[in-house]
Specification:
0% strand, 12 helices, mainly alpha, 2 domains, globular
Length: 360
């Protein structure tokens, strides 16, 4: 009976459930660990992404000069690029934001007129007549809940200020973490491989190299693909004369990392802005984005991504559903990249453990 695979699997499930139950009884022990993980997760993930972006440049320069000096030069070049982007793109973003603020009353009047047109429609009037509620009831309910809405807005403002403070702390920590990752990151695999017998270290080194290649190709490929999509969207929006083209293109750039939903999440604001202009403008945006996404999926991604980390579509959908509930929009952005990176790490770590158990 002990040799039965189903029985052994059931035993493992029972053991895991028992561990979870016992852990819940002493949750105060694990709470500091959870806080530590939550605190370090964002800086480490961001530093890892930037590490894979900057490492090729550091490696090239390190062949001609000390590695520390090459890292410093790359940092200065990155600061210079960010400064140039802020100086040239910042005023454009500021102008577009001010234009949006100035046009907000006009958009409000257009929305109000649209709602009034819907209310005056005969079908809507008939529905309101037959229903158990009226527009006055809705208005009264909104007024009675106005205090709750105000408190929610205040809480959102406090949360936003807390998020800004966290971003500042992360921005200060990341350069130091990134420096040591770039300077001594190549020592980490060697330290890890020392835990294995000498005859296993060659195979372990090969596994770690495969894992590093997969991670770097995925992260660098996603960044390049998103940059291409954002640039193409910017060209499209400028070509059709869409307002706030730069802001909307940046939104498309960041949301493109979300599979399936990302392109449409990034397109939705552009369609809404286009509708304030004309229905034809909205159709032009939709048609243009469809062409861009087809071009991206058939030309850009195969050329740039190369070795991709395969994730089943059903897995992606479940990940997005869970991540949206846990972390909202940020969860949607990080769900699939985090899963893909974690999948590589876990699968290759499991392979190393099997190698050690087989030859140990």
């Amino acid at each position: 009976m002990l040799e039965n695979k189903l029985f052994r699997s059931a035993c493992w499930v029972v053991v895991l459930l028992l561990i979870v139950y016992l852990g819940s009884l002493v949750s105060f022990i694990f709470e500091p660990i959870a806080i530590l993980v939550q605190t370090l997760f964002a800086p480490l993930v961001i530093a890892l992404i930037i590490y894979y972006v900057l490492r090729p440049f550091v490696n090239v320069l390190a062949k001609q000069m000390p590695r520390g000096l090459s890292i410093l030069i790359v940092f200065l070049a990155l600061i210079g690029l960010v400064t140039v982007a802020v100086l040239y793109i910042g005023p454009i973003l500021q102008t577009q934001v001010m234009e949006f603020v100035n046009n907000a009353p006009r958009y409000g009047r257009q929305i109000q007129a649209f709602v009034m047109d819907i209310q005056s429609h005969s079908a809507v009037q008939q529905l309101m007549t037959n229903a158990d509620f009226s527009l006055d009831d809705i208005t009264g309910q909104f007024t009675s809940n106005l205090g709750d809405y105000t408190n929610q807005i205040f809480s959102s403002i406090v949360s936003a200020l807390s998020a800004v403070a966290n971003i500042v702390v992360i921005a200060v920590i990341i350069p130091f973490v990134l420096f040591y990752m770039l300077k001594e990151g190549n020592k980490a695999p060697q330290m890890f491989l020392r835990q294995f017998p000498i005859r296993q270290q060659e195979e372990g080194e090969r596994v770690l190299a495969d894992m590093d290649t997969a991670l770097s190709s995925y992260i660098q490929g996603q960044i390049l693909v998103s940059a291409c999509v954002g640039s193409l969207c910017l060209i499209l929006y400028l070509a059709i004369g869409l307002e706030y083209a730069l802001i909307l293109a940046i939104v498309a750039l960041f949301t493109n990392v979300i599979p399936f939903l990302g392109p449409w999440i990034g397109t939705a604001p552009a369609v809404v802005v286009a509708l304030f202009d004309s229905p034809f403008m909205a159709l032009a945006v939709i048609a243009g984005v469809v062409v861009i996404q087809q071009f991206e999926s058939s030309v850009i991604s195969p050329q740039i991504m190369g070795r991709q980390l395969s994730v089943h579509p059903l897995t992606i959908i479940l990940l997005l559903l869970v991540a949206s509930q846990l972390a909202g929009f940020v969860g949607l952005l990080l769900a699939v990249p985090t899963y893909a990176v974690g999948k590589v790490i876990v699968s290759h770590t499991y392979r190393l453990i099997r190698i050690r158990m087989r030859e140990g």
